[in-house]
Every structure is written in C-alpha cells, then in structure tokens.
Design brief:
Strand 4, helix 8 and strand 5 form a beta-alpha-beta unit. Helix 1 packs across helix 2. The chain is α/β, with parallel strands linked by helices and 237 residues long. The relative contact order is 0.16. The protein contains 8 helices and 7 strands, in the order H-H-H-H-E-H-E-H-E-H-E-H-E-E-E. A 7-stranded mixed sheet has the order 3-2-4-5-1-6-7. The longest helix has 15 residues. The protein starts with 6 loop residues before the first helix and ends with a strand.
C-alpha cells in the first residue's frame, strides 16, 4: 500500500496532532496509520519496513551500476539516498555518503529521521563533507577501501562548482569507469529543473534533470524519480 507521504512526514503529522489535540503520541500515530488504511502504527511501520522504495531500488542494483535519483526540493531524494547508504551493509557493502550540500550534523539528523544509526553498524557508513569532493576525490577515497562500496553523491550539479574541477560530463564518465572496474554502485542525487513545476506531468523524467553543464545521462543504468510521495524506477534502454 502506497503511503500518502514519506514516513518521516507522517510521524511529524502525528506529533502535531498529539500537540494540538492533547492526546498521547502513540494514539496520534495510530490515528494517522488508520487514515493511511492500516490497523495501527505498528501495522503501518511493519509494512513500510518490508517494502520501502529504497529496498525496491536495491533489488534492481548490480555491481558497476550508476543510479540517478531526481526530485524537486522537499520530495525525499536525499533521505532516499541516505537510506540506500544505510542498507549497503545488508548486501555486504560499505556505505559512503559524499555531500557538498550538508554538514555531517545535518546528515546525522536525516539518518535519525530514518530511524537508524549507521555508525553503529559492523560497516559504519562513511560521511565525507569535504569542500574538495569531485570525481577524483571520491575515487581516491574508494581505491583504499577494503570492501565493495555503495556510494551516494549529493549532488550531481555541484561536482564541478569549482573552476579547478574537470567538466561535469568528464567526472561522471570517470565515476562510471571506476564503478565498472571495481564493481562499486554509485548513486547520484540530482536536481530537477524548476520548469517541471509548470508542466502538466505528474512525475519528473530524464528530460527534467537540471543540467547547467552537459552530461551524458545515458551513463546511468537506473533512474529513480520522486514526487508527492510517488516513486518511479526506470531502467536505461
């Protein structure tokens, strides 16, 4: 059953409901779950844990894949990427998050929204917030890694923000070569162009990816788009 909103937003709704109606939080959670068509919050949480969008994407991932996640701000693309990094341990991989957009504290806060502590895993998720993040920086860090990696890059359009970095297309090609050579899985979070908001389309597509600089998007083996709680997964032709 598809939730009307990501689970962290439903939890926020429950907290507001508990505050506004002076009821206990567990009762507010159950009311929200009932509206979503579940018996209670435990029923909702169990079903969500069994079939989250991240787990569905993981089923399609193969060594060497490059995956693109695209959405407008506030539609859950970063949380989806972080959940994939947290799930890396489940497929015997080490999770990495390279972000030019968030501090490590902000990343931890978002992991908390997901209800997980990836630093307590047998293979803790590595978070890199260096200003030097680009393809060569990512590759250099991964070459020394002992385990197969699942890498989340946040986000695509920032990799060439420094003039000293190579063009974006060149960086994406370098990451694709590396993922194929080492069997890594690389997930890149992407902005969606603002023009999408004026379109009649209910879901972004590859045509809506914001590209201030050219990139060959056919380099991505899988693509995932999010909007208003809906998720669509596409395989490259």
């Amino acid at each position: 059953m598809q939730l009307s909103s990501p689970i962290y937003k439903l939890k926020r709704q429950a907290k507001l409901l508990a505050r506004d109606t002076d009821i206990r939080l567990h009762e507010a959670l159950n009311r929200i779950a009932t509206k979503e068509g579940f018996k209670d919050w435990s029923h909702l949480a169990t079903n969500y844990a069994q079939a989250t969008p991240a787990k569905e994407i993981m089923r399609h991932m193969r060594p060497g894949d490059m995956v693109l996640i695209g959405a407008r701000p506030g539609h859950g693309k970063t949380l989806l990427g972080l959940e994939l990094a947290a799930l890396a341990e489940k497929i015997n991989r080490a999770g990495y998050v390279f972000t030019l957009d968030y501090t490590e504290t902000e990343v931890r806060d978002r992991f908390e929204k997901l209800g997980c502590d990836p630093w307590s895993f047998d293979r803790p998720v590595v978070v890199d917030t260096s200003d030097d993040i680009c393809a060569s920086h990512i590759i250099q860090r991964l070459r020394a890694a002992p385990d197969d990696a699942l890498v989340v890059v946040d986000y695509l359009q920032l990799l060439d923000q420094k003039r000293s970095n190579p063009p974006l297309d060149e960086q994406v090609r370098a990451l694709k070569r590396f993922s194929c050579e080492r069997g890594a899985i690389i997930v890149m979070i992407s902005q969606i162009d603002r023009a999408f908001e004026q379109s009649l389309s209910g879901m972004p597509s590859i045509r809506d990816i914001r590209l201030p600089n050219p990139v060959d998007l056919s380099l991505f083996d899988k693509r995932c788009f999010l909007h208003d709680g809906e998720v669509r997964i596409e395989m490259a032709a």
